[in-house]
Amino acid sequence: MINVFSVNSEIDLADFSRLLWQKKISHRIVQQNPEQFVLVADREKVRETLALFNQWQQGLIRPLPEDNISLGGYLNGGKLAGQIGQTLQNAPLSLFLIAVCVLLAFIAPLDAPTALTRDLLYPDFSFGTRIIILSRVIENFSVLQLMKMMTPILLHAGLIHLVFNMMWLWELGQRIELKLSSISLGITIVVLSLVSNTVQYLYGGGNNFGGMSGVVYGLFSYIWMWQLFDSSKGLNLPGSLIVFMLASLLIFTWLNLSMIANAAHMGGFVAGMVYGALVASISRFRRKAQIPQDGRNP
């Protein structure tokens, strides 16, 4: 949480807090006599919070009356359609991938393989011999095999596996689409899926695997690298989320359970770090190159 400002504890901020919630600003008010501190979760909301406080103090703005809207009001068709349309506009690729994964969870489940499931598995470059000969792989390589090197990320085994990965795909994917673009997210997912799936195939013992988790860890480290190398894009993660993701990666790796694609997790994580650091550094250098020598923005 980011400390925005502090005021005397005698000032009642309950009304102002309700105003912030109505403005969809996630916040906390912490009291430490003789002061109370207003903290927000999103750095981009700091200026808006300060402006709202000044208007609230001057009596220029007040929160709406207590919410007594009926269930029908919440389910207002026009408002709901507008929200769905906005979501589709802001994060179309994330939603498309989630929809595809949900569909395939029913028609191509990883835990009850169908013909389609087998068609979407990583290609067997050993051709049934368990020995990979690079010259033979290159000779027989095709566009279809390239696609199949990525498609395992769309397969899931069970509801928990699916829901967990889709929640993280949405949380991380829509951040990239909002701050960069859907094209940037698409290219990143291609890179992460190729690397994480290939690492899992080479070190995981076969091609019977699937799931978005390798890409998820890659998206996490990709965003983290943008936060470290070019924070001007506003692509960042809360410190608590960074700690959680790193801890979960270490725990899964340490447990080394057979049903978890640990190699894909680590491969995606490292690929996200390398690729994220590279593109964020290029972005930073390009921006600096556009600034005139007198230090003024172009």
> What is the average of the pLDDT values?
87
CA-CA gap between termini: 33 Å
What class, by secondary structure content?
Answer: mainly alpha
DSSP strand content: 5-15%
Let me know the CATH homologous superfamily of the largest domain: Rhomboid-like
Question: Which key terms come to mind for this protein?
Answer:
298 residues; mainly alpha; Alpha-Beta Plaits; Rhomboid-like fold; three-stranded antiparallel β-sheet; 3 strands; elongated
Walk me through what this model shows.
Helix 10 packs antiparallel against helix 13. Strands 1-3-2 form a 3-stranded antiparallel sheet, with helices on one face. It folds into 2 domains: 2-57, Alpha-Beta Plaits (2-Layer Sandwich), CATH 3.30.70; 84-289, Up-down Bundle (Rhomboid-like fold), CATH 1.20.1540.10. Helix content is 60%, strand content 6%. It is mainly alpha-helical. Strand 2 and strand 3 (35-40) form a beta hairpin.
Task: Compose a concise summary of this entry.
This protein starts with a strand and ends in a 9-residue tail after the last helix.
List the helices and strands and how they pair.
Blueprint lengths: L1 E7 L5 H9 L4 E6 L2 E6 L5 H12 L13 H4 L2 H14 L1 H16 L7 H6 L13 H7 L2 H6 L10 H21 L2 H22 L9 H17 L9 H17 L6 H28 L9
